[in-house]
Description:
Chain A: Keywords: Membrane, Transmembrane, Transmembrane helix. By secondary structure, chain A is mainly alpha-helical.
Amino acid sequence: xxxxxxxxxxxxxxxxxxxxxxxxxxxxxxxxxxxxxxxxxxxxxxxxxxxxxxxxxxxxxxxxxxxxxxxxxxxxxxxxxxxxxxxxxxxxxxxxxxxxxxxxxxxxxxxxxxxxxxxxxxxxxxxxxxxxxxxxxxxxxxxxxxxxxxxxxxxxxxxxxxxxxxxxxxxxxxxxxxxxxxxxxxxxxxxxxxxxxxxxxxxxxxxxxxxxxxxxxxxxxxxxxxxxxxxxxxxxxxxxxxxxxxxxxxxxxxxxxxxxxxxxxxxxxxxxxxxxxxxxxxxxxxxxxxxxxxxxxxxxxxxxxxxxxxxxxxxxxxxxxxxxxxxxxxxxxxxxxxxxxxxxxxxxxxxxxxxxxxxxxxxxxxxxxxxx
Amino acid sequence: xxxxxxxxxxxxxxxxxxxxxxxxxxxxxxxxxxxxxxxxxxxxxxxxxxxxxxxxxxxxxxxxxxxxxxxxxxxxxxxxxxxxxxxxxxxxxxxxxxxxxxxxxxxxxxxxxxxxxxxxxxxxxxxxxxxxxxxxxxxxxxxxxxxxxxxxxxxxxxxxxxxxxxxxxxxxxxxxxxxxxxxxxxxxxxxxxxxxxxxxxxxxxxxxxxxxxxxxxxxxxxxxxxxxxxxxxxxxxxxxxxxxxxxxxxxxxxxxxxxxxxxxxxxxxxxxxxxxxxxxxxxxxxxxxxxxxxxxxxxxxxxxxxxxxxxxxxxxxxxxxxxxxxxxxxxxxxxxxxxxxxxxxxxxxxxxxxxxxxxxxxxxxxxxxxxxxxxxxxxxxxxxxxxxxxxxxxxxxxxxxxxxxxxxxxxxxxxxxxxxxxxxxxxxxxxxxxxxxxxxxxxxxxxxxxxxxxxxxx
Lengths: 372, 458
């Protein structure tokens, strides 16, 4: 098939339409016994016109045809591990790691460690499960938003929303929707997709202990923000140690720094603190927060070493947990005056440092993966 | 972008004949399946290499208790490795149809599997996905249907997981596109799946993935172009796709493909050209296109140039796609004086005529396009004759196929009507004798007679 040479240059040229020649039709055109009429034609999917093209497509799928493209040679790097606490996947390409991170760690609720497939579902989850105002507001107005992005419907109750999802968006009736919130209960599986793997026993109800199974697979959960009514004790899961984080080293430093020279017996204070920690086995150490505290505190904190308390040795000392640059750190609420004092100091120190951060947003995973 | 196809090893000698034979058999089987409306191809990605590495244990048929045991381990095992291994064993067992049957009839099994698929553990997710993959590949419809509960999750992932659509991970994207294309082919798709797809952000993502440019990947584009085709030919709401700029995106993609075809050999572009042409052709039939000068029209005559470059490519590499290309040309020219003029001004009539001998279907389509041009009036016919058209037409009148002859007669009528001098030329070229051959043919008689009259009375 010989094409005029000017065709190729026309293709390379700019867009444009031809100025049409004048149209002048005679009624006799296409009149009986003739029948031609110019018209556009459409074919439905199963039309036989598509047979050849479909066969071609399926030959390709069935691998009879040679591959369309081979995966381009991806740059390999020395093996490295995912730095998110508790995840031990190994990668040898940045592309794989980025995908892994996006899929599993990007949209993770920092309160309950549940992972969501999208930012949207995560936001809905945080709003409904971890925002204390939500319950109050939902008594006055429709607050339960439809989970499907783009649908603007809101509902009075979780059940109404579920009915809507089943009825209008054709979700199956046993789709994993929110489970009813137990007051002060554990963070049961939140919005839609992220289901905990206990389906055979799932008859619509949720046992709190099971729900935590998936959550606690991940390591050190972030501590509750100061001032939250919810206490940490609800997280007890049989057989798994409560991991509650406090940066004792930081506290030590902060104590020293905040109190300054007004406390001549700093050493005494430190001993007292150590005693407190021994008495309260629920406090653990994490180097993670030490490293977080480093940039905040300046050279003095460069030591960064955890104090040599006997407690920490028995724990899951996660020395690799240095990926996150998240600046937030909070003290655990524990039931002791000492801790109240510590909390007070923490607040004080925050003021001193002039950092008034929006804790919720900050905790809610804006952490970026560290590029190696 | 249009990386050259690095195909599998090209064998030499008699092995080629064997492959051709195999391919012919496969093709025949596919045609048969399609006629019976049973054309479903699945990509089975069994990672044989890794299985061999694991000591090559033979897959055994699993019974109910064993399946339950594995599921429980996968769900509640304390060690991650243990859970993974349980799923691996399950997957191996699922390679057997008997195990598949047992599995789907076991209460709660699918729910557990879907739960694992949506869990937090990447490796568990992967293994659960592999199990589902084995199941979905089953020839037994009951088994494949049992996988339906996973579709809501898949859709949620697809529509909510927009980060994956901008993922740099091409294999993932291609897999997503393939999965979506399969979903869109089910019988219930037009009522149930396509409306929700159209209501989500998916159409924008799909169109974005089809935009030409350095980031376009052929494998990914092929899958999503097919998705678009299934959506469009189901005629649910094509106006929406037009309003999202579907026509202009696909038009630009066509231009890009024509450019690529000129530059590189053997890129597998026909795999992309086919769905793109179908989408364009079907979109052109939408009522929205009747609004002249509307915002989302396709008016760039470079599209015609690109199409002809692709037609030439098809002629060499894949003649079975010529009808689809010509269908697009028909839809472009039918109601558009501008495109008809482009055909004339770019000297494309002769190349078009060169396609006449290819096949009956192609001949009919070529003649139809020529009729589209001719019916616009004298200004157009004057550019058709004098020229090579008439002698070609006399040639097609001699074709054994009635429909080809019928279409030739239609074109002749228009030519005689708007360009009377052509009739004289026709007589001089012994056209009447050719006409006479069809005097007795029932479907052609009236028209033959009318033309004989017209020619003789000039």
